[in-house]
Write a structure and sequence with these properties.
Strand content: 15-25%
Mean pLDDT: 91
Shape: globular
Radius of gyration: 14 Å
Helix content: 25-40%
Number of strands: 5
Structural class: alpha/beta
Order of helices and strands: EHHEHEHEHEH
Number of helices: 6
Strand order of the largest sheet: 3-2-1-4-5
Distance between the termini: 30 Å
Low-confidence stretches: none
Length: 159
């Protein structure tokens, strides 16, 4: 279905954030340095290949918990990875909802405009929530999901 959406997360799906997690280990967490290093994320080949495959027959949409102020950096990173960057939905400033709530709300808005064929995300809580809402969801399990990142996504609403 060429008009249907394939909705992909970025961190842990196509971008390898493991080199940045060290900034979240201490107290207080250094969110500025964590996000500033996003332009140096290595590509996750399995996720990039999957995204390109879906882009052949679907409209590829990015739905990330990254904050809106990282739009230019994220768009440049996607383009450098030879991925489309036109449809990028990011977390608004000061939005601290858990990732599962933020993404469920955004997907609800998207599906009013187009059918959502699949969602690909690395966060088990997001996957469980979206499956419960009836979406077809694929867990990106090619990189072990970090408990540090899990806390950032679900408890702190930061990514």
């Amino acid at each position: 279905m060429e008009d249907s959406l394939a909705v992909f997360d970025i961190d842990g799906v196509v971008a390898d954030v493991r080199h940045r997690l060290k900034y979240l280990d201490g107290r207080p967490k250094d969110w500025d340095r964590f996000f500033a290093a996003a332009d140096r994320d290595p590509v996750l080949a399995q996720g990039v290949e999957l995204a390109r495959s879906y882009a052949e027959s679907h409209v590829l949409v990015w739905l990330t918990g990254r904050p809106e102020y990282l739009r230019d950096l994220t768009t440049a990173w996607l383009r450098a990875a030879d991925l489309p960057a036109e449809l990028l939905f990011m977390r608004p400033a000061n939005d601290r909802r858990p990732a599962r709530d933020f993404k469920a709300r955004q997907l609800g808005r998207m599906k009013r405009e187009s059918a959502v064929a699949v969602v690909v995300d690395d966060d088990p809580a997001v996957v469980a929530r979206l499956r419960g809402l009836g979406y077809v969801v694929r867990l990106a399990d090619w990189v072990p999901h970090s408990s540090t990142l899990q806390s950032a996504q679900e408890n702190e609403g930061r990514t």
